[in-house]
Amino acid sequence: MLVHIFKKFSQSLFGILIIFSCFFCHESIAKPSKLSSKILVVYYSHSENTKFVADMIKSQLRADIASIETTNKYPSSISRTKAQKFNTTSIPKIKKFSKDLKKYDIIVIGSPVWNSKPAPAIQAFLKDQDLSGKTVCFFTTYEKTPGSAISDMKSACPKSSFGPTKDIRFSTSRKKLMKSSAKNVRYWINQIRELSVNKNFVVPKD
């Protein structure tokens, strides 16, 4: 009788252990792996298009985010077309940057394309900040042509390494209406995620 009770107890205990092991195994598989690198999204936006993409990146990667602001703002009444014709060689003063770049491994920097160049505010940021040793991923927002904006931004960071980049086209008549494929943009963002968790990730050629 005692032997029979002991067998029943052992079988029940074994069953409970199996259930718990399956539960914890499922939990470990279900949880997404955390990003091993800390990511910051930096952007300047006049027409809200660049902010739109920056917010996408922040949401998809759970990254920190910071905007660049000029001390003297361009009038809100200036159209996107007129803003793009501003002298892109005249570098404006920008407000003190709110984030400590030393805390981040990957910096994603976004700029609208003005006159085929990065916006002057982005040029000022790249001139002021030391990105040596950082991995930088650039993106632009444009309406007609991306020009040389990304290559110009890379030239301003000679001591940085570079991650995936992206030129993203928007409508000429409506704010925040992306003409580039949203699927391709999400794929590019996932490349940045892969870079953050895999040190051996091979960055695709531009």
Distance between the termini: 77 Å
Radius of gyration equals: 24 Å
Low-confidence stretches: 1-10, 13-33
Largest sheet: 7 strands, mixed
Mean pLDDT figure: 82
Question: Which structural category do the helix and sheet elements fall into?
Answer: alpha/beta
Output the helix-strand order. Answer: HEHEHEEHEHEEH
The amount of beta strand, in percent, is 15-25%
Secondary structure tally, helices: 6
Task: Give helix % range.
Answer: 25-40%
Descriptive notes:
By secondary structure, the chain is of the alpha/beta class. Strands 1, 2, 3, 4, 5, 6 and 7 form a seven-stranded mixed β-sheet that branches. It contains six helices and seven strands. The longest helix is centred in the first third of the chain and has 29 residues, at 2-30.
State the gist of this model.
With 206 residues, the protein is α/β, with parallel strands linked by helices. Helix content is 38%, strand content 17%.
Question: Which features characterize this protein?
Answer:
206 residues; alpha/beta; 6 helices
Strand-helix topology:
Layout: H1 2-30, E1 39-43, H2 49-61, E2 64-67, H3 80-84, E3 106-114, E4 117-118, H4 120-128, E5 135-142, H5 149-155, E6 161-162, E7 166-169, H6 182-197
Parallel strand pairs: 1-2, 1-3, 3-5, 5-6, 5-7
Antiparallel strand pairs: 3-4
